[in-house]
Amino acid sequence: MRWLLELILGVGAAVTALALCLPSSPPPLDRVASPPPAAPAPGQLPYTTSYTLRAKLDPATHRVQGSGTIDLVNTSRKPLGSLYFHLYLNAFKNDRTLFLRSPFGAGRRAARPAEYGYLDVKRLSARELGGVNLWLNRVPHSPSDPEDETDIELPLPQALPPGGRLTLDLSFEALLPSLLERTGHAGSFHLVAQWFPKLARLEPEGHFEHFAFHPYAEFYADFGRYDVTLDVPEGFVLGATGLRVSERREKGRRIERYLAEPVHDFAWAAWDRFVERRTTVHGVAVRLLHPPGHQESARATELTLRASLPDFSRRYGSYPYPNLTVIHPPEGAESAGGMEYPTLITTGGPWYHPLSGLRSLEALTVHELGHQWFYGLLASNEARAPFLDEGLTSYAEMSTLSNWLGSASGAELFGLSISTASVFRAVASVRGADEVIARPAAEFSSFQNLGALVYCRSAILIETLARVFGRESLDRALLEYARAFRFRHPNPKDLVAKIREHMGERAATTAERALFERGRVNFLVRELQNAPNRMAAGYFERNARRERVVPKLVEPPGYRSSATVYRHGSLEIPVEVLLISEDGTEQVRHWDGLGAFHVFEQTGASPLVKVQIDPGNRVLIEDRLLDNQLSLTQKSLPRVAERLVYWAALGLSGIGP
Amino acid sequence: MNLRVLRAWSARRSPLQISVLSLWLARVIAASIVTLPLARAVAESGIAGLPKGDRVLFEPGGLWLVELLTAESTALWSGLQASLQLGLLALLLLSVPSALLFATASAPVELSDAFRSSVRVAPRWLAIGVVQILSSALVITLAALVAQGVTRSISGWLTEPVKDLVFLSVLASGLVLAGLLAIQADLVRVVLVRGLPTGSALELAYQAFGRARARLLGGYTLAFGLGVLSIAIAARATELCQVEHAGALRVVGVSLIHAGLLLVLVLIEALWIRRLSSSLKVT
Prior knowledge:
The complex is a heterodimer of chains A (657) and B (283).
Chain A: H1 2-21, E1 49-58, E2 63-73, E3 80-86, E4 118-126, E5 151-160, E6 165-175, E7 184-186, E8 189-192, E9 198-199, E10 201-202, E11 208-209, E12 224-233, E13 237-240, E14 243-250, E15 253-263, E16 268-271, E17 275-281, E18 284-290, H2 295-316, E19 323-327, E20 339-341, E21 344-346, H3 353-356, H4 360-377, H5 386-405, E22 411-413, E23 416-418, H6 420-430, H7 447-469, H8 471-484, H9 492-503, H10 505-516, E24 522-532, E25 538-542, E26 545-549, E27 559-568, E28 575-581, E29 586-591, E30 597-604, E31 608-613, E32 629-631, H11 638-655
Helix pairs in contact in A: 2-4, 2-5, 4-5, 5-7, 6-7, 7-8, 7-10, 8-9, 9-10
Chain B: H1 3-11, H2 15-34, H3 36-43, H4 63-71, H5 73-106, H6 111-154, H7 160-192, H8 198-211, H9 213-241, H10 248-279
Helix pairs in contact in B: 2-5, 2-10, 3-5, 5-6, 5-10, 6-7, 7-8, 9-10
């Protein structure tokens, strides 16, 4: 039986090896004392739009029958002659919609739905206007696009004056597509988002901010009160925006009522295999709905919420709702993952993720939670200025993950830690100057560019501002921005104004140039010169005589050195420069970053042999870091050489014949 | 060390000890040459000119590592391709010291005879290696396809972890088959270095495998497990050296750990060959 012992020992050794290679778990956190949840501060009262809806899901046909009431108040300064409804689900109606018509595939995943979907309004009437079906008068397609039906104008028979109210009764049917872009079905799993006729945001000056649903864009709407009753088969588990206020079972159906206020959207998920985990984080009741077998993922998600929710509340104002629902979609429904709705977020990833060393689940959770502030509470226009939400959320994600996980915020693999900042920088620098960051989503040349610029470059810009102009002042600026514009739909200028107020003119100018003008920066060193100190030689006219002075070194011997550093691009960012002499003496000098170049001079006993710009890696937004140095000394790579030889030898050992 | 000293030193060593050291040294030298194009690409990136030198590549957070990989991806890819080509050449040349280890570890033999035998069998040695790699790849691919089919058919009613476990189990059967192929190939090698023709070697190896299947599988698993464990321990040990900090001693320490590990791997290989040879009854 020796062979059996050897077999067991061999397997044991391999398993031990595997265990040695596993990454460490994220550090546990001390439980933060849970304060009572803050009362939701109302937004603009009265609300422009409030929804009372009832929805019944048939999971076999993936249809949602909806009905209800929209209470509309003209909170603007002008009479309204038309209403504009977003029927976002019509983006998936056919291949000619604005969303799907690209021959190269739609949206973020460049995919096509296997099954199409739509949103049909069957009837819409206003009680104040006699109850006739107004929907018959609609313009049948989006104003900007005759083949699209996601942005529908409904002319009113009589204008609604400022302060006027309409009670709109409606019934509709939503056919959910196969999962695409965070809505639809995969088997019996349903993520029901953008499923009801939704009024466009009414701007105070009297126009609706409406747009056809573009594959790169997200949403924009007014805050309001949502009272939604959901009706699903009894075996299904529901997760939805808002707080569940009632639940009953009736004739094989589960009927739950949710209230949410003030929010600007309502989404829900239903699946007959969800496993529920409940907890309280920082005073917020959290429901985690995950597939069977994902207990470790749920635990990792909870740990992440414990790290990030208090951090976000401290940095961007308290989370104002009593609850949060987190949906982890099952395998096959990955398209439902990584999305935010008010008080509801979706994450995702395989069950073995916590063992992998990649922090993608943590990053996804932190990112989507961050949206609760920048998308949920500030509610800037995601179609017109997506960076205000995605960029700030990405920065918040990067910053919070860094506070929590340190240098391993992105991944920890084989003893190597990768930070989120390194990854974001790499993505941002590849497409850095391609396009303006602060532009409408639909104007980006590709979603890859939008992703690199809106998500990563925005985050790297803000991190650069923190590192160069002070993290405390940046934190103050963001906190004030988040507080001042909560429920108020800020625009890019509001953000820059807060940066100017708290970080100063140069920081604001840097932000403006980077955001609005494709501003970029690259530092480099080109010249490094040394000359021995010597007396001036030659012929000199002194005391009415011509005197010849021969070349002669001064005592004690020394050197005059100069290094010229250059700045390319329009971002005038102050930077430090490290000068190293042959004897090892180091000097850190400051350059205000103004002008195209700067010459650093020094006189010393030893020649200057190395120069490095930005040794502290503060200017993360820089195009290229590798040209930030110049060295006159012999260069070697002992560590790299050793490691490469080792890996190669290991490879030759493993696959040698 | 001049030639006379080397002769005197080698006279005091057994052929097995010399072949172990030869294979170890050959691998290290070959690896040094193989990595030259890639190392050159890294050197030309400017990393070496930084005041901290190449230790920035090992700093926590990986800022410079990611920068290097993205900003210099084209040059690195070219370097890697050149290195891989050199690696193929190295594999061919390493067949001689590798065969020498098989010759000296499997039976008491004079070093000179073992060397002659190693050179003689080198072409067939390589052919066996190629056949082994191709057949293993085929077996593992088939196992993966079967695993995919099985899991697809049961995906509706199992949880994701169970489904993945089923997938891995089916795949593991392919890996076990690949392991058995490796054992067969090593048996053939042992017979070949004893001077038998290929046909006889295949027959003998097959018979020996049939006689001692369990014993060989146990020995192979142990050798594999110990090898993997050694690599993992070395990886953890190198972390302790913290090469991201300054100091030549840290680099020396890591080099010693890695060199030691490579030697351990050769020793495990030698022990495995001994086990193989004891399973053979070759006249």
